[in-house]
Amino acid sequence: MAAPRILSGIKPTGRPHLGNYFGMMQPAIAWQHKGEAFYFIADYHALTTVHDPAALRQHTRDAALDFLACGLDPAKAVLFRQSDVPEVTELAWLLTCLTPMPMLENCHAYKDHVAKGKIPSHGLFAYPVLMAADILLYNSNVVPVGKDQKQHVEVTRDLAEKTNRIFGEVFTIPEASIVPEMATVIGLDGQKMSKSHNNTIGLFEEEKALRKKVMGITTDSQPVEAPKDPATSSIVALYRLFASADDVATMEAQFRAGGIGYGDFKKRLFGAIWETFEPFRARRAALEADPTNVDTVLAEGAARARAVALPTIDRVRRAMGLR
Ligand code: ADP
Ligand code: TRP
What we know:
Oligomer: single chain
Bound molecules: adenosine-5'-diphosphate, tryptophan
CATH topology of the largest domain: Rossmann fold
Largest sheet: 3 strands, parallel
């Protein structure tokens, strides 16, 4: 079988957090060795929420730096900015014409927005169609994402199948790849970690800020001597992402035995997080010291992305009768 084409994106709406890292960035980086990987910074998507041009530019650059610092190898994977291949918006329009409104009305980001009494923009409503265009433009087979994006990949599959039924075999049908243990990383308050919940731990926090966040993780009010339940603890859930199976088993046993306070467990978690990201911090500092580096990576990535995208959009235009 030919090497799979792998594709994923991250929105530059703020600095990436542990949920982004374990849910998407780490699996994506692991995939770069198994096929042709295309990863992009979804700046068109970010425009549904970020309306400050300087901030959008900064977040886009930061997301690229963070991805590279975490181990994305530009010699293996293509890293690019979504808006460097504007044909994706044309494909989004072509797909929009085949998208039933109820399918989008059923998508969770839109539904959550409406449930909160907010007025969604048309961009937010059509967000999954642009995401489908991202995936289909690059003939992707595998889409590594966190669980919250599964529905969007389902929409993509539906639209690709519908297009193929009507216009012939135009698109490759993609599949989401979700690492079960990383499907939903929880945040400081025990809910899903998300920029919009204000409960995140960033990948590149300053030491003091990180310590403060970890020490602020919500717990119950069990006293030091009391036995504690590891199964419901956010501390243990986060520790599991960083520590060896033995170290996790030790912490769980100590929870059940009582005699150690939450503060001590939090310190252990802080140490594990800080140590895990140590090599990434060093690499990020080195990358930042040479600002042309990331620009070159993104420019070369855009050229490689366009080389795949242009034949696809041409094929779709012809199939639909536009040429
Ligand atoms: P946010 O919800 O913070 O705005 P994004 O929507 O930018 O994050 O998500 C980027 C990627 O990270 C997606 O693949 C998403 O599924 C994944 N992701 C985000 N939060 C989590 C989480 N808490 N657990 C697992 N994966 C996550
Ligand atoms: N919607 C994704 C998110 O919020 C980002 C994204 C945009 C994406 N286009 C994509 C992810 C295509 C995978 C494939 O995280």
